Amino acid sequence: MKFLLDFLFRVFQLFTEPYFLVFLAIVIIAVLKRKNKSKNLRIGIFILTVVMVIFIGNGFLGKMISGYLQKAYLNTSEMKSTAVQNPVIVVLGGGIVEINNTEKLHTMSYSRMVTAYQLYHEYRKNNQSCKILISGKGRGHRSEAELFSEDFKRMGVPDADIIKEDQSMNTYQNAKFSSQILKTMAPSSLFLVTSGFHMKRSVALFKTFGLKPVPQASDFIDTEITWFPNSYNAAFTFVMLKEVVGIWQVQVYNSLGMNK
What we know:
Keywords: Membrane, Transmembrane, Transmembrane helix. The protein is α/β, with parallel strands linked by helices and about 260 residues long.
């Protein structure tokens, strides 16, 4: 059952790849032409595809999805350090890039790092205990957790306040492996730091493993309404579309008791 659902959601995710709709339309039109189907039908499919690409490239679709994914987290960056004692701040990795054989954190990682450090600093300046749990292995030779840790230490965070979860390869594993660590720590409160567009799915997965994180969105993405389609709008719309499919997958798997 799970294998079949995994396959189906991978198929759905193909529709969130840049301009996959164009490729699909070309294939359908070619098949219809070979089978001598109606010329009007082929033209209709072509026009529909062009309209959808324009809708994506002009930023209309992205603007709607952006609100769905991020609106609830626009004010979560406010510090809440006075409300709890001994919290843990979980930071999700944002990816690794390799340039000239040198591995660096993806640009999204730095907004997450800054947000986590600001919250951590609010506690420490009041002499309150606080830990940072960095979750992410990534696909490089060095883990995201390791690279994050090095930068946090440069910012003045001591080793004793840094916990590394360096095995997870995706958001599901971020939640699963982090929950195993957190349940042994039993923190009074848990903050979750990740990008705004990624927060809804992340919170849902952490709740799946019995945790109730306080969301702290580190950054937000949006599209711009333009007369002519552009790559900026298309790129961010497809990123957000993929996130929507991921949320649906979490919801389906949770309803079937398969996210364990």
